[in-house]
Automatic annotation (TrEMBL):
This is Cysteine proteinase 1, mitochondrial. Pfam families: Peptidase_C1_2. Its EC number is 3.4.22.40. The keyword DNA-binding does not apply. The active site is at residues 122, 408, 429. The keyword Transport does not apply.
């Protein structure tokens, strides 16, 4: 979803006292005791999970401690990692040096890096980074496309509280949906729905607001009201109010939601004028454009002729999947994924790049990466060296045990091949131009295998047998499935 939004939870970080100055030196003994207490707490919790509540005894802890201290490497690692960010300490210099921004295949036209800032709009930024390329090519202008318009309409349309009023409020489904009744995350098929229903506009006629770039507080307000409204509707249903009464109440509730969003983002234009000079100095002017006209006539990108392919090794390949209750527009196309092997996904991506087309994709961006360096590489952080451990789960197992899921959307714009095999990939991110190479990242091919889950292709660029899978009746994954996480 974005640079500031994590979708997996872990142990909360504990901020401990430090020896930053002489005044605090006498607290060092307390610090050691605190750390020892935390260590025992972690181990005891872990043992409780594995052994059904049996606590570790002092003899076992002493045995672990003796073995730990008998290895000089452990003491060296402790001294280094305790005092700095472990990812900095364990950074694999050789891997970082080899992850260079040189690619044998690269699309001819690239835009400047965009910045989603403190929001979860990566899916929209990645989409408009794809959409702007036809505008740059055909009109010789680097005008950005507005995301706030799509952001507002996405927030408005991902709300339906009446359909599930009879579901038990404590059911897993309701608790999951109440966990994030609305957000600024999304999926590619949601992009198609927004473009087809509302169109898109140049950024100059509908610029960013503070709240589109910093969406946390707006999301909180809307989420709070939606939970409140859900409660009210369920109470009305329990008191046997008619469906007409519920719908009338919902219409009034949605007016309130619209007001909150309009105040925070501004209303998107219904009609606008667009004037600019191209790179050759030629002047253009367009008057009375609607967002849908701009999308159809100026952008001229056929989003409806694209589709999503995923690599989900938990399920059989060459089948169609969807996620229950995942969508944004009533009557729009549902979320659909064609499941394919990872090697097929890579070959299709290479073919698209060779034909000069960027490729929108979804991945688990927080794994084995350094955002300041702009590197995505399984070898980059050497946890094995620092902790003498190995991570042994397969991609399917990580999905099954909540260790991985799609968290971010970006765009492939290049690949480096050796003997026709991919070595590294060029990635257009939306975290500003100060990371990586002016906002572009490099991805090692092994990282693609483990952490890339989805790509989007034009149907004409995919084998017909994959396009034909879209005619299948989709198998429905539950609402909380990790294949829907990018929209949460």
């Amino acid at each position: 979803m974005g640079q500031n939004k994590s979708r997996l939870s872990s142990f909360k970080k504990r901020r401990l006292p430090s020896k930053a100055n002489d005044e605090k030196h006498n607290k060092f003994d307390d610090l050691v005791k605190t750390n020892e207490h935390i260590l025992k707490s972690y181990i005891s919790t872990y043992n409780h999970e594995l052994e059904g509540g049996a606590d570790l005894n002092e003899e076992s802890l002493q045995k672990y401690s003796d073995k730990f201290n008998s290895e000089p490497k452990n003491r060296l690692a402790l001294n280094a990692i305790c005092n700095d960010d472990m990812n900095k300490v364990l950074l694999n210099r050789d891997a970082a040096i080899k992850d260079i921004h040189v690619f044998s295949e690269k699309i001819q036209l690239e835009g400047k890096a965009t910045n989603q800032k403190s929001s979860g709009r990566c899916w929209l930024f990645a989409a408009t980074n794809v959409l702007r390329l036809p505008v740059m090519k055909n009109w010789k202008t680097s005008n950005y496309l507005s995301l706030s318009c799509s952001f507002m309409t996405s927030l408005k349309k991902r709300i339906n509280m009446i359909a599930l009023v009879e579901e038990d409020v404590e059911s897993r489904l309701i608790q999951f949906l109440f966990g994030a009744p609305v957000s600024d995350g999304g999926q590619w098929d949601m992009v198609i729905n927004l473009l087809e229903k509302y169109g898109v506009v140049p950024k100059c006629v509908y610029p960013e607001s503070y709240n589109s770039s910093n969406s946390g507080r707006l999301n909180w307000i809307v989420t709070t009201k939606l939970r409140e409204f859900a409660y009210q509707l369920r109470e009305m249903h329990a008191s046997e109010k008619s469906i007409e009464v519920l719908r009338h109440a919902k219409a009034q509730m949605m007016e309130e939601i619209y007001r909150i969003i309009a105040i925070s983002l501004g209303e998107p234009p219904k009609v606008f004028d667009w004037t600019f000079r191209d790179k050759d100095g030629k002047y253009y002017e367009f008057f009375g454009l609607t967002p849908k006209q701009f999308y159809g006539e100026i952008v001229n990108y056929k989003a409806t002729e694209t589709f999503s392919l995923v690599n989900d090794p938990r399920h059989p390949y060459f089948n169609l999947y969807t996620v229950e209750y995942l969508g944004n527009i009533q009557g729009g196309i549902p979320i659909r994924y064609v499941n394919i092997p990872i090697e097929t996904m890579k070959q299709l991506t290479i073919q698209a790049l060779r034909s000069g087309k960027p490729v929108w994709f979804g991945a688990d961006v927080g794994k084995a990466s350094d955002s300041s360096l702009g590197i995505l590489d399984n070898r980059l952080i050497d946890y094995e060296l620092g902790f003498n451990i190995k991570f042994c789960m397969t991609k399917a197992q990580r999905l099954e045990y909540a260790q991985s899921l799609m968290t971010h959307a970006m765009v492939f714009t290049g690949v480096h091949l050796e003997d026709d095999r991919p070595i590294r990939w060029r990635v257009e991110n939306s975290w500003g131009d100060e990371r990586g190479e002016k906002g572009y990242f490099v991805m090692a091919d092994g990282w693609f295998d483990d952490w890339v889950y989805q790509i989007v292709l034009e149907k004409k660029d995919a084998p017909n047998e994959l396009v034909e899978v879209l005619k299948q009746k989709p198998q429905i994954l539950p609402a909380w499935d990790p294949m829907g996480s990018l929209a949460i």
